[in-house]
Amino acid sequence: MVVILVTKNKKFKVFFTDTDKQIVDLDYFLHDSIVAEKWFKKVRHLQNIPIDEIESQRTNLEDLWSIYNDFCKFTNFKPIKFSKKDEKFYNLLHEIFEKSHKKYSKIKNNSIIYKFHHAIHYHQSKENSSNVNQINIGWGIKEGPLTENFLCNPYYESCIKKNFIYLPWSELGKRPRQYWKDKEIKDKNRFNNLCLPHITLRPKFFIQLIDYTIPKFENKFSHFFNQFKQQWIRQNNLEDWTEKDEYSAPLLAMPNHSYDLHNLTFLKLKLQ
Fold first, then answer.
1. What angle do CA 218, 177, 196 make, to 5 degrees?
2. What is the pLDDT of residue 67?
3. Nearest-angstrom CA–CA distance, 118 and 249
């Protein structure tokens, strides 16, 4: 369990419960940045609203076929049979999600379309274990009225530190390296439409569980990216796109502790 209590001077406590239901309270300080201030004001409105189980990665996404069939029932889409689960398979599923999202995101009780999207990425990047080293918290579609168009990349940190709180990239597209790693087609229009920097400030966050060193780009990716980079950077009003933009995040709050936060469960966020 995690409960966050914020004071007027931007100091706050984070309360955790461990597997034995014992409570530990730890001190945090809000980072001095416009992104952190905006996030803090948004989160205040959500303190009495339950978090979204899918966005907070509490939903079992192992059975992709079952999730896909539930998605097809909701969207009246005829399921496609696949012979193998390779990159083309996942990319096609992502295209199906993209085409359905605009229409079905406006319909009530539509959580299955987001579960489907999360399941695609979960299975597509299953070998990437970075997200298991985070406590992720979000409110899903309930965040809608509080979301804001804001370019967050200039506020990205050079590293991700244990116990610090960050704002996650949460666009519906892909970042450039992810696009390349997923073996999407080498098409400029597809790249420009699907690849996005961090342009949406949402009232969600993650608490990092271990120190994370940002890796260097692979030479093969850099060679691939160079054919799209300049136009894409201009299109998105960026100065550049570096490893920091691809892998890091804006800092929201710093801990005043060195506690090991593994095996803890988030319950709610409460502000004073």
1. 155
2. 92
3. 19
